[in-house]
TrEMBL record:
Protein name as catalogued: OLC1v1034536C4
Species of provenance: Oldenlandia corymbosa var. corymbosa
Subcellular localization: Nucleus
Occurrences of domain Myb-like (ranges): 408-455
PANTHER family xref list: HOMEODOMAIN-LIKE PROTEIN-RELATED (PTHR47122:SF13), MYB-LIKE DNA-BINDING DOMAIN CONTAINING PROTEIN, EXPRESSED (PTHR47122)
Cross-referenced Pfam families: Myb_DNA-binding
Length: 504
DNA sequence: GTTAGGG
DNA sequence: CCCTAAC
């Protein structure tokens, strides 16, 4: 055990890769670039000038002696190739390279170049890395979901302090967006430079043996010292201005990426690979060539198609939407359940003070408009049965997109119940007209659906009561007994279509 | 246009 | 909440 712990990231001289840059047109996988790792000693890192060694056409400032292929672990690397400046892994990995992206799934092909000291070094590892198998990877990634953004930044700041994970870069470029992919300058994974004293933010291979860097937001030819892998956004055009470069760890997959020397990262935090939408949103609209458009699932109607288009269009245009989608923190207001406003429904059992909680529900995605919430402040309620009903902003839904989820408020539920008791089940339009005329977002169909859900809830509650008492195995939010009881009553009085009312 | 019901 | 068949 070395002194990794002190400065986890870069204390170690070497970084392990289990992915390599690949020329997809080649039958072999060749190293196009690599990482050099020294936090405070950039001079120690490779210099273009004194490079005896070439990797896939890229020069590295490292002495040959510094490369120590582990015996038996480098079956595919021939010394002669290294000497000749060619480092190729002949593992038939080309299949992985169709997308110019090596996902590092070549676990069997243990290849390691070990460099133990001094100037920079490359360690390519693909074999049985200790931390490779992570049964809990998925769970971990899910747990860290909400903090994904933060962690991404963190990863950036800490440079190569990435353990056993894949890095994916998110690159946003400005510049000539009209260029076709054919003119694409780079079609290789890129590297991102971290913690440089200079304003170098990224480096990548141009595919011709040159290692380019992004300095001061512009692509230039300069050899950086410290880079992290950037497996995505492989299409960079000359002259493009890089305005954003972010990294995240792919937590959805189990293969390894960079293995840093971090002890602190032992927990192996994994970040979920951002959804395509996330990537799209991070990119400037101009950089269409960088982030390919999303595929639209075949709609089955013209309306749907137009809706989707409208939605997409809206998405691109609406910054608010973007930030809203990215904002993991929303405001949730729990609306307590209470007795029906207009009737005598009595609250059974304990009636405790109203509770209005903020931020207690992770469900909520956006900040609701408070005015849309109906808070029954005067309504007493059962503590254990407080309603989680949360209203979510639902405006701006005029673009055909799926309506924002607007949770039913207690008042609405009560209104619905009243409506049913008044007009009977099935008169949704009537109920809507009479009782929900003010709430534009509730359609007769919504009322019908809600009633159906209420029925299910009440039935389930009854069932669970029959079985085990205390145990509440309801999948949905608990509803106040007072409400459910009324639903039950009404369901008895006004039979709902078909077998749905399998109770009574 | 409404409603029922499946997804 | 969406979609669609049936009315």
């Amino acid at each position: 055990m070395e002194d990794h712990s002190a400065i986890p990231v870069l204390e170690d001289e070497a970084i392990q890769f289990d992915f390599l840059l690949v020329d997809p047109q080649d039958d072999h996988v060749s190293v196009d670039a690599f990482l050099c790792i020294h936090r405070n000693n950039s001079e120690k890192c490779m210099q273009m000038d004194d490079i005896p060694c070439k990797f896939g056409g890229i020069n590295f400032g490292t002495d040959r002696e510094q490369l120590h292929p582990k015996a038996g672990e480098v079956p595919d690397i021939k010394a002669s190739e290294i000497e000749a400046g060619e480092f190729e892994i002949l593992n038939g990995l080309s299949s992985f390279c169709e997308d110019y992206l090596l996902d590092g799934e070549y676990e069997e092909n243990g290849t390691e170049l070990n460099h133990d000291s001094g100037a920079g070094l490359l360690k390519v590892v693909s074999g049985n890395n200790n931390q490779t198998d992570r049964p809990g990877a998925n769970e971990t990634s899910q747990k860290s979901d909400s903090s994904a953004t933060t962690d991404q930044v963190d990863v950036c700041q800490r440079g190569l302090n990435v353990n056993d994970s894949d890095l994916h870069g998110i690159f946003s470029c400005t510049g000539d967006s009209e260029k076709s992919l054919d003119n694409c300058w780079f079609q290789y994974p890129t590297f991102t430079v971290e913690n440089m004293e200079e304003d170098v933010s990224s480096v990548f291979s141009d595919g011709n043996g040159r290692l380019m860097s992004v300095k001061s937001g512009l692509i230039s030819e300069q050899l950086p010292c410290r880079v992290t892998a950037n497996l995505e956004n492989r299409h960079i055009f000359p002259g493009q201005e890089v305005i954003e470069s972010r990294l995240h760890i792919d937590g959805a997959q189990t293969h390894r990426g960079i293995q840093g020397c971090s002890a602190e990262n032992h927990e192996e935090k994994r970040l979920r690979k951002p959804p395509k939408r996330f990537i799209d949103e991070l990119s400037e609209p101009k950089s269409k060539s960088v982030c390919k458009k999303r595929e639209v699932s075949a709609p089955n109607s013209k309306d749907k198609l137009s809706n989707v288009k409208a939605a997409k269009h809206h998405y691109k245009k609406s910054k608010a939407e973007v930030s809203f989608a990215e904002d993991p923190i929303g405001i949730a207001i729990q609306v307590p359940f209470g007795p029906l406003e207009q009737n005598e429904s009595k609250v059974e059992e304990d009636s405790s003070p109203v509770k209005v909680k903020l931020d207690s529900q992770p469900l909520v995605v956006s900040s609701p408009k408070l005015k849309d919430l109906e808070l029954d402040r005067e309504a007493p309620m059962s503590e254990s049965e407080e309603d989680n009903t949360t209203a979510v902003k639902s405006e701006e839904d005029g673009f055909g997109r799926r309506k924002h989820h607007v949770l039913w408020t207690v008042s609405e539920v009560k209104m619905l119940i009243d409506g049913v008791s008044q007009y009977g089940v099935g008169r949704w339009s009537r109920i809507k007209k009479d009782l929900f005329s003010s709430s534009a977002h509730r359609t007769p169909v919504d009322l019908k659906d809600k009633w159906r859900n209420l029925l299910k809830a009440s039935r389930a509650q009854r069932d669970s009561k029959k079985g085990e008492d205390g145990k509440r195995n309801l999948a949905w939010r608990p509803l106040p007994k007072s409400i459910l009881r009324r639903v039950n009553e009404l369901a008895t009085i006004h039979p709902y279509p078909r077998d749905l009312r399998s109770k009574c």
